Amino acid sequence: MGAGQSRSSNQLVVPQANAALDQLKYEVAQELGIVIPQDGYFGHMATRDTGAIGGNITRRLVQIAEQSLAGQFK
So what family is this one in (predicted)? Predict the structure, then answer.
């Protein structure tokens, strides 16, 4: 698999969001001090590191959704 490709069987509801989610992955990893492999293959990374990235992405997405919802009901 090349850089930017994923083995995930998950389908995005909004395929155009793929680039934004990929960017978020790299931002979160950088904030956590985790280096993402240049070839895009995560198989050699520690589960703890990939879990930390995923957990922080989820936390950030929930935060964005909460802010969006709060803005709709003002």
Answer: Belongs to the alpha/beta-type SASP family.
